[in-house]
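Need the bound structure for adenosine-5'-triphosphate, inputs here:
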Amino acid sequence: MSFRHPLFRNESVLVPEHVPASTPHRGVQMRALEAYFQGVAERSQSVSQTVLLHGPVGSGKTMLTKKLGVVLEKKAASYGNRVKFLHVNCRIDRSLVAILNKGLRALGHSYPTRGLSFEELLQALLDELKRDRVHLLVAFDEADSLVESDPPSLYTITRLREVASDEQVFSSLLISKTLDYVKMVDLSTLSSLSWNTVSLDPYSAEQLYDILLSRSQQAFCEGCVDDGALQMAAELASIYGDARYAIELIYRAGKLAEVAEADKVAPEHVRRAKSDLPPEFRKEELVYLDKHQRVMLKAISRVLKKSDSAFATIGEVEKNYNALCESLGLAPNHHTQVWNDVNELARKGIIEAQLSGKGFRGRTTMIGLSRVSAGQLDEVLQEA
Ligand SMILES: Nc1ncnc2c1ncn2[C@@H]1O[C@H](COP(=O)(O)OP(=O)(O)OP(=O)(O)O)[C@@H](O)[C@H]1O
Ligand SMILES: [Mg+2]
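Answer from helper R.:
Posting the output first, comments after.
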């Protein structure tokens, strides 16, 4: 029996929750976050900060947030201050009351969840923070879902620094895919945000390659991943700019190579991994679309459902969109706005839009769906 060298050195490096030591192409954004919270680290009793961090799926928001938490707690300690970092996912902790309770528990205090009003709970939290001389930084991950279910919560979060006016004990980092949720709430809330924003762009294929290289050097044994496999995974994931998808592809490809008893991960394993692993489609993304964008999406799914080809032209889509608007008694948007909406849907990763090669009726924008089938999308839109 021949001895086979294992492919993986440490596969836990490839699970999505792993926080990597090296984060290529996010140095500038990490430094921006650190700079915004520098004052809190230095003078944690008198300075507070609110920062918005936004970027598309898999652009590194949660990763940067977790790294910031570690850095900030340490930096504050080096100034003799205490900063406590709390990361909450607002899809799981769905109300401010739940989040305040989590804050109290993180500080080692437990309060009855029932019986206290929101104001009493908030006062209790602020009192404990002042007594313990601790500054709490809460990272509200997926903040849009909290604001969506409880619109005034954004106002409350941004006013917490005023509630604690004599001393500063509370800062927040609001994380979301887009800033649309901020636009949905009323203007008095907007003005109290001082608009410190850090924005993350989707990753390019080259950037994803660097990320994959750095993660796979730790995860796989030397020489066990073909460079072409990394390039292919980076290329496939670059349609979405999504590092999570890129990493999942290479992880899955590694598993397939292991089962096949191959000596290295090859492009063919990535190809197979891709067909096993359709990128996730998130229904929540549809929540923030306006009426015309929804109608547009409906038109796209209808055209594609009837078509044999993977793409539809923008002309076909627009025709169907105009017809749908008419049946709904809606005045259709003009061509420029139609084009803007298509680009916006593509930017959010809901559809794919690309220019056709020359020769196909000149050059035209081709529209396709890759995260979801046209039939599924049509169903989701019926529900919404
Ligand atoms: N620059 C990078 N270097 C190394 N790994 C990265 C980088 N950017 C993202 N990743 C990894 O990609 C995965 C997805 O990142 P993350 O969870 O931070 O995305 P996100 O922006 O929070 O996405 P979502 O909106 O879906 O929550 C994680 O495993 C993360 O560690
Ligand atoms: Mg995230």
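Comments: The domain at 27-199 is CATH 3.40.50.300 (Rossmann fold). The two ends are 58 Å apart (CA to CA).
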